[in-house]
From TrEMBL:
Gene name of this polypeptide: trpF
GO molecular function: phosphoribosylanthranilate isomerase activity
Family: Belongs to the TrpF family.
Secretion signal, residue range per the UniProt entry: none
Enzyme class per UniProt: isomerase
UniProt KW keywords: Amino-acid biosynthesis, Aromatic amino acid biosynthesis, Isomerase, Tryptophan biosynthesis
Keyword Phosphoprotein: no
Coiled coil regions, renumbered to chain: none
Xref: CDD domains: PRAI
Upper classification of the organism: Bacteria, Pseudomonadati, Verrucomicrobiota, Spartobacteria, Chthoniobacterales
InterPro entries in UniProt: Aldolase_TIM (IPR013785), PRAI_dom (IPR001240), RibuloseP-bd_barrel (IPR011060), TrpF_fam (IPR044643)
Organism: Chthoniobacter flavus Ellin428
Protein name: N-(5'-phosphoribosyl)anthranilate isomerase
Enzyme Commission code(s) on record: 5.3.1.24
TM segment ranges: none
Amino acid sequence: MTNPARVRIKICGVTNEEDARAATDFGADALGFNLWPGSKRYIDLDRAFSWIRGLPPLVTRVAVLVNMPLDDARRIADHPAIDVVQFHGDEDESYCAQFAACGRPFIKALRVRDAASLDNLETFSTPSILLDADAGTAYGGTGRQLDPQLAAEAVRRFPGVKIILAGGLKPENVAEAVLAVRPYAVDVASGVEATPGRKDTEKMARFFAALR
């Protein structure tokens, strides 16, 4: 059984099997694969199918989508290499409600600018909400840090929501952020990279060590 008090760890922006295996060896609970062509961490799911499908069975495989047509999102959700989809674009409440009708789990990412950004947090038809820093037109992976006070406010205001903390996390600040926010999970991409799309094993080791 999973310890409910333990903060789960999602390593996002994984582009290759070597990094995926390293992350799972360190104890990652989930891996994120960016299927948005505009991302520096984009991968072709069909080309990566064999190694993604071959990852350990208790690791959640997350497809990160940005403003994808609804029918295509449903198709990705049904892909045998994917367990969960994450909407990281401008998908609104109506879009999420229509997707929820297909019965597949999903995460909705919100870019948080101020306290008002949290007001509609419970309206996206999912209990899993990822909070990221607002970086204008960028869709995640910028390294910009989210104000931990805003994230902590979300945890207090919405106890029934599984808050996933993202935005500028790295080995040097993740422990402090978790103590301040008490999220359900943390999500990191650029903070454990050597270059965009390539993870740094030493940084990943320090990230996991900091949380333990």
